[in-house]
Amino acid sequence: MLIVEDDARTARTLSQMLQEDGYDVELSFDGANAIARLGREPAPDVLVVDYRLPHVDGMVVARYARSRYPQLPVFVVSSYPEIVMQSPPLNPPAILLTKPLIYRELTDELARTVRG
Predict the structure, then answer these.
(1) Confidence at residue 87, expressed as pLDDT on a 0 to 100 scale
(2) Residue 80 maps to which CATH number?
(3) Count of CB atoms within 10 A of residue 36's CB?
(4) Which residues in the chain land under pLDDT 50?
(5) Residue 17: per-residue pLDDT
(6) 55 in the Ramachandran plot: left (φ > 0), alpha (ψ -120 to 50) or beta?
(7) Left if phi > 0, otherwise alpha if psi is -120 to 50, otherwise beta: which for 22?
(8) Helix (H) or strand (E) holding 28
(9) Which of 76, 6, 10, 2 is nearest to 46 (CA)?
(10) What are the tens digits of pLDDT across the range 57-72?
(11) How many separate domains does the chain show?
(12) What interhelical angle do 8-20 and 103-110 show, nearest 10?
């Protein structure tokens, strides 16, 4: 799983929790680095991306990810869901989660999307 979050503390906490739940996690702290990572194999199994990022916003990262990996599950996390919803939708749609992120909501969606 690739997590793209510019707040290092939040990213590391989320990564640790997910690893404790059995997920393999990579971190990226800005959109440009995330795109560079997505340009290399192997593909992550899941993309969790914050909407507001330095250099490139999360929807640009999500679109790039889907251009390379059309069926990649994408989770967009944002404090501004109304702005994200104004963006053209991905196909298949991204799962939108609002901040503050409730860990259980993320893991429930992961279970339905990835493990289900």
Answers:
(1) 86
(2) 3.40.50.2300
(3) 11
(4) none
(5) 97
(6) left
(7) left
(8) strand 26-28
(9) 2
(10) 999 999 999 999 999 9
(11) 1
(12) 50
Residue in the block written with tokens 């944002």? 78
Gap between the Cα atoms of 67 and 114, Å rounded: 19
Instruction: Give pTM, 2 decimals.
Output: 0.94
Task: Tell me which residue range forms the domain holding 12.
Answer: 2-115
The length of the chain, given as a count of residues: 116
List, for residues 47-59, the tens digit of each pLDDT value. Answer: 999 999 999 999 9
Reading the block at residue 78, the tokens are 């944002």
Alpha-carbon span 31 to 3, nearest angstrom = 11
The number of C-alpha atoms within 13 Å of 10 and in the hemisphere containing its C-beta is 16
- pLDDT value at residue 56: 94
Dist. CA 2–CA 46, nearest whole Å: 6
In the chain, beta strands by DSSP E: 2-4, 26-28, 47-50, 74-78, 95-98
Contact (Cβ atoms closer than 8 angstroms) between residue 47 and residue 65: yes
Whether the CB-CB separation of 34 and 6 falls below 8 Å is answered with no
Residue located via tokens 């990213």: 11
Distance of alpha carbon 89 from the chain centroid = 15
pLDDT score of 65:
97
